[in-house]
Amino acid sequence: MPFIRSSTAAAAAVAALLVATASACGPSEDKAGSESTSPAAAGQQGGDDGVKLPEGVPTSLDDLKKWKQGGWKDWDNWARDASDFANPVIKNFWQPSRMSKAKDSPNTLSAQSAGEDRAATDPEPPAVPAKQVSRPYHRNMAPVGRVFFDSPEGPMVCSGTVVEDPAHPGKSNLVWTAGHCVHSGKKGGWMRNIVFVPSYNDNGLSAARTETAAQREVTPYGVWWANWSQTSSQWINTGGKTGNVGSAYDFAVLHVKPENGGGKSLQETVGAAAPVWFGAPSADKVSSIGAYGYPAAPPYDGAKMYNCTSRPGRLSFAPTTPTMYRIGCSMTGGTSGGGWFVNRGGKTVLVSNSSISSNEHTWLAGPHLGAEAKGVFDAMSKKFAAQG
């Protein structure tokens, strides 16, 4: 059974998603701890508490006005370093018409270069056709939504998942997504105007209708702006537009706030959040994984939520990096960042996110969430622990 939106706002009612259950074996074979990233060393940034901002980012009302009028397009001032993230709220910026123009954020890999560490890479899985998620989405996969952002190539889109925050039980404002949806990696910097839209297009309108639909139909639980973003230092230092060793660390966490204010958290608003299972079993010990997201590249159009459920295999780029999960799936770009779930003791938990796909879109791969991922997550949770 899927996620069910709770009638009690503070509680996340989650049920079994997959028939098969991940094996409760010992710790993953991946030695993630060998290159662990401490919270202090993880890629982290902010603009809410006096952290020095990069040149060109608004620091006054006049600067903010210029930013809102298009100053954010000045990519010569691309913020790259871990302390340089800034994402001022621009009300009514992400209207349905602009969302509909956002392109997928592809991160692909040719079959020839896939699995360079052959000893820890399984044969390429057979393709699995993606299936549409039942509507309305808030009654089936309430934590899943779309992540919109601006890049030098224009407006882009990924997927994301509301995840539980141990510092704020029942009141999380955290969203899990892919690192490349917030930062371009080795040759780039932080994306801009990053927002999360839970249960995007809740009733599955056609792509054409979403362009002119009322805001409440496309964004039923509002638009949530990232006021803090965090990804791994490994992704920042090695990530790229094609799969490589950085893909094993291609994950990110957003802390968000509602565009129009309000006292309720994201989790209370949507009624559900997924726990994150750090150190889950490696791929060869998991019987089934379900990947969810909004594929936006043909033959999909980004308007509807899809999923693939399959037994995972292993994909590795180097003996020194964690071995990734890989499943057969036809979903395309736009799915990036979407959550991967397993059934753990009758509860739906997140174990990965979509990171890369084959050029032919026959499979997806996602990182194993080990010590580095936990360091990023814990730093984010700790950052906002003192807030209400």
Q: Could you explain the architecture of this structure?
A:
The chain is α+β, with helices and mostly antiparallel strands and 388 residues long. The protein has 7 helices and 18 strands. It has helices spanning 61-68, 96-99, 207-210, 215-218, 233-238, 266-270, 371-383, and strands spanning 43-46, 103-104, 108-109, 131-132, 144-151, 154-163, 174-177, 192-198, 224-231, 252-258, 289-293, 306-310, 313-315, 324-328, 339-344, 347-353, 356-358, 363-366. The strands form 3 sheets. It has a 6-stranded antiparallel beta barrel with strand order 5-6-7-10-9-8. The longest helix has 13 residues, at 371-383. It is globular and about 55 Å long. The two termini are 32 Å apart.
In the sheet with the most strands, the strands line up as 5-6-7-10-9-8
Radius of gyration: 19 Å
Output the structural class.
alpha+beta
Helix/strand order, N-terminal first: EHHEEEEEEEHHEHEHEEEEEEEEH
List the total number of helices. 7
What is the number of E strands?
18
Q: Looking at the structure, what is the overall shape?
A: globular
- Main β-sheet, in a few words? 6 strands, antiparallel, barrel
**Average pLDDT rating:** 84
Between the first and last Cα atoms, what is the distance in angstroms?
32 Å
- What percentage of amino acids are in beta strands? 15-25%
Helical fraction: 10-25%
Low-pLDDT segments: 4-52
